[in-house]
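Course assignment 3, question 2. Fill in each field.
Student: A.L.
Task: Predict the tertiary structure for the chain below.
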Amino acid sequence: MKRLAIPRAKKRLGQNFLIDDYVVSQIIQLIKPQHADHIIEIGPGTGALTDLLVRTKAQITAIEVDRDLARSLLEHYANIATFKLHNSDIMNFDLGMLREQSTEWKIIGNLPYNIATPLIMNLVTHRSLWSEMIFMLQKEVALRLTAKAGARSYGRLSVMAQRQAHISYKFEVNAASFSPQPKVQSAVIRFQPIDDKKNPEIDVYFEKIVKLAFATRRKTLANSLKSLIPTDVIKRAGIDPKSRAENLTIAEYERLALETLEVSGH
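Answer field:
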């Protein structure tokens, strides 16, 4: 099937179209589309990934915000019964409606840099909807999402996302793989949901603690968290009050949240 022509990119939509067939094949190898799969493709653009996805006869649901591209894609795949398209902004899309079709969606996409972080933070909270996510995004964001405690890139995004999913850094993508070429490097990462049950009662405290700690990450925990947690509570959680935000693991943040919950009397 002949691929759609590359249109003039719309800057307001953060469009950079993937044109590298080798990178396309690498991404497809990662997601391993099968006939029985339900796949969501975010921002199919000119169909670089879509062409290979539809050949598997998997159920493809594409979400494309660009009205012109959506129209072209619908015409291009008009004879593909397994292809559906929503001309919609993924940031406002009702993901819950897709749960009726499957709770094992594979989600794939070349994410615009301007929405990648908030979109991923929303998607990881829908763990009951998907079985795997493969995204290409700005290398800097990919490093933050996969960073471990103690690393320079480790921050609030790392903690909040990794609490919901196993995230692995797969490979980097050169700017020349896109049209137009972005000014930054890209990388592909994989998300797999964490199945262990979380204590929902600590979620509010967990988010507050992580936000406070990283807001002033150069300060000790005793100073950065003093408006929420007394030093003795930090010690009770088995954590050194002189530690800094980037030194704590997710499990340690959960212990802090649990101790805070208990002293609050809830």
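Instructor remarks: The beta strands are 17-18, 38-42, 59-63, 83-86, 105-110, 130-138, 165-173, 178-179, 186-193. The radius of gyration is 21 Å.
Grade: pending
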